[in-house]
Amino acid sequence: MGLFPYVIALAQSFGATRVIGVVTPAVARLYRRFGLDLHNMGNVAASQRAHIVACSIDVDAALFKRLQRDPQALLYEITCYGQLGQPLA
């Protein structure tokens, strides 16, 4: 989950209100275990064993509360990291 909050904060900064992804069922279960409210986007019958599932998640204040992260602080960390690797002129 280390990179996920940064991706969501960056998506929100570009105006995203929902993020869609394709993950394995195990990763979807892991995200749900972390308290994220994933919405399945396809219909897979219980008898079918899907190797991947399409999910969406709403990008809102409640998501960042569940992640226990501040979106502005995450963006600041991205900006600071990006400045560290610049070559000297």
UniProtKB/TrEMBL annotation:
SUPFAM superfamilies: Acyl-CoA N-acyltransferases (Nat)
Superkingdom in the source lineage: Bacteria
Designated name of the protein: Uncharacterized protein
Species this protein is from: Paraburkholderia silvatlantica
